[in-house]
Amino acid sequence: MYLHGTSRINARGHLEIGGCDTVELAQRYGTPLYIMDEALIREKMRAFVDAFQDTGLAFRVAYASKAFSTLAMCRIVDEEGLMLDVVSEGELYTALSAGFPAERIYFHGNNKTPQELEFALDEGIYLFVVDNFDELMLLEHIAKEKEKRARIILRITPGVEAYTHKYIQTGKEDSKFGFGLDSGQALEGVRQALECTHLDLMGFHCHIGSQIFETEAFQLTIAKMGQFIKTCYERYGLVTRIFNTGGGFGIRYHKDDAPKEARDYVQAIAEAVRKYLHDLPVLPEIWIEPGRYIVGEAGTTLYTIGAIKEVPGIRKYVSIDGGMSDNLRPALYQAKYEAMLANRAQESATETVTIAGKACEEGDILIWDLKLPQVKQGDILAVNCTGAYNFSMANNYNRVRRPAVLFVKDGQAEVVVERETLQDVIARDRIPARLAPKKASVTVG
Ligand SMILES: Cc1ncc(COP(=O)(O)O)c(C=O)c1O
Ligand SMILES: N[C@@H](CCCC[NH3+])C(=O)O
């Protein structure tokens, strides 16, 4: 397994992250357990900022909080001075509750509700990324009622197909997101936005997908957007102040993945910006909004190995105490992960096994054909690169309790999200009086 950030094998032959022995963490906090390497998160954020600083462009780096959003994470984003992209009132509420300044937050989403728009407007967020004509009218109406002005940028679908899973391609013309560029919707969106008396059109956004390795897709997008931005200036005199090129930068989940460094992505973006936007009256501020690249490699999930079943001559299923409830990505995108035995990290692989989750679904397979030392019940499996879209997509299917999240750094482990309790599982259930039991039958929990 590829070791990221502060991960290493310690003298006891155990996987260590952030100076903490993961086997001890599993014993102390239980499994499944999400572990986040705080130093690596910060390093990734700084890599983008440093790379942009070297380009000399005016820029902003945002963190896409959908990848992993908790109060503690928002504190780190704030301390590192990044902007924050939220896509729901829940993410916005999390950020504000963490003391994240509203003026560094902006709001994404293809169906923001009136309640969400009002909440965000009242809190004074920096801007809204308007996704469609209906939202444009709705936001104008709400801002007018409140006698406020809202900054906006329009989300444009540039018609670029990035090489990634089709469920996470978002830049193609046939997408639920954004104003289509090729169809002319984008230009019409600009015309309508400029007529809105309570909206300030600051610029544009586009995001072509996620887990993208090639820089060419970003450059092609900038080329198309550069042309569009020029057309907007010529036709409407619109000076584009902000051009957000989105996120989507790929990471190394698996040995076959070949991502680039933050610097490579930024240099490619900067090169394309200079090439395709140089003849504008003002070069817009360039924004990016990575999620996965910042937190993905920083996350590791620990599981305890339970039942082992051999299907003679076919395969050996090794079951863990989690699965698609804490990591939906293999079931949803056929995502591939690497893993190791955290308690026997120096031992060489002698068998090929399939890691099965505990959900009541045949498709709950976390990793097919993984090479490990001879596995025993009670071993601790560490799956790496689980920092993005694992905790944030976790669910209670089968009424499974969602795991705790730890931040580890310099030998210290801190719980940033508690493990759900059995009481949490039923906390919002109500029994109508007519169905009330004579007495509760549970004695634990
Ligand atoms: C609009 C938008 N911005 C940013 C992101 C973050 O993407 P990633 O985590 O791949 O960087 C996404 C998710 O794909 C997105 O839809
Ligand atoms: N959740 C997805 C990516 C989509 C991100 C947001 N548009 C993943 O796990 O890869």
TrEMBL record:
HAMAP family to which the protein is assigned, alphabetical: LysA
Keywords for the protein's UniProt record, in alphabetical order: Amino-acid biosynthesis, Decarboxylase, Lyase, Lysine biosynthesis, Pyridoxal phosphate
Highest taxon of source: Bacteria
NCBIfam families associated with the record: lysA
Organism: Thermoflavimicrobium dichotomicum
GO biological process: lysine biosynthetic process via diaminopimelate
EC nos: 4.1.1.20
Required co-factors: pyridoxal 5'-phosphate
Binding site for pyridoxal 5'-phosphate: G248, E289, P290, G291, R292, Y389
Annotated function: Specifically catalyzes the decarboxylation of meso-diaminopimelate (meso-DAP) to L-lysine.
The protein's name in its UniProt record: Diaminopimelate decarboxylase
All residue ranges annotated as the Orn/DAP/Arg decarboxylase 2 N-terminal domain in the record: 40-296
CDD domains linked: PLPDE_III_DapDC (cd06828)
Annotated metabolic or biological route of this protein: Amino-acid biosynthesis; L-lysine biosynthesis via DAP pathway; L-lysine from DL-2,6-diaminopimelate: step 1/1
